[in-house]
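Subject: Interface between my chains keeps coming out wrong

I've been trying for a while to get a sensible model of this assembly. When I model each chain on its own everything looks fine, but I need the whole thing in one frame so I can look at the contacts. Pasting all components below, labels as-is. Any help appreciated, I'm running out of ideas.
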Amino acid sequence: MTKNLFTKAELEKLRELPIEGVASRLGLDVRQHRCLCPFHDDHTPSMTFSTTKNRYRCYVCGAHGSTIDLVMGVLFDKQGGAASALTDACKWLTKEFGVLVASQYMCKSKSEVTPFEPKRFARYFEQPKLSLNAQDFLFAKRHLHPAVVRYCRLNSYKDWLQIPYYDINGNLQGIQSRYMGKDKLQPRFLFPRGKGCHIYNMQVLKMLCPGEDLYIAEGCSDCWALLSAGHKTIAIPSATLLNREELKAMFLKLNLMENRNTVHLYPDQDMAGENLYKKLHAVAADVGIPLVRHNLPSGCKDFSDFWISQQSSRKEHIMT
Ligand SMILES: [Zn+2]
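Reply #2:
Try treating it as a single job with all components included. I did that and got this:
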């Protein structure tokens, strides 16, 4: 029996993919949270989906489970041990939904994936254009500073926001897409296409003076909000998935100790945020960098949330 390649955190992430979206990708015809059960000879839709629990259940044969169970059952249950079926189902989900998982970083480049050519794409971000939808998303909903959006060179294409990842010298490394539309079946973020997209907003490090504060965000959205608040920030979207040694290697490359920088973090108000804080705290101690923890007020799940609530109350204050 082969060992499952995915970590607990990665499995958690895959289980959070929209269950009805997963069912649709498997070819099941989901209508009004129901479909024909693929696990028994069903003629009236007896499989139901709970979007709050993100699970499926068949009231005739009793089949039930998560996104991963559904894929395993429909596509991979026939042969192999349970662990290989699990790995195959997870691989299928990552590929189908473009989920960011650390295991992908460890894999050698796959032949079936066309290599990303930064030179071909860099021009799209030279004079980025934002659709009205994107402007609404970034400015009206998220209250981001226009200078931050310009500096990050955010671009839009249809319902997708295109987020360029640069290296420290401003060379394009990859692109990540963020869905802004209303289709609940779409994943919110696709993993970045391109190489070396472990850190977002690397180019800020060139502007970081010795002894200055650097903020670390879990993802792009928090990074933009922190930048709008005037903090020099990088995001490490894969941080929760990386182990301590991998994070340490990443930290050492940033030369923060030599420059006597202090690192700041607003942990997300959930288990993942708390675990990330603990991990970063240990890594910072290992490499000798001071890490300052900031707590979000209750009711704000992440910094972006906090920033939005602050800005909208400020606007109301001006209006009244
Ligand atoms: Zn059934």
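Reply #3:
Confirming on my end. Residues 105-113 have pLDDT under 50 and may be disordered.
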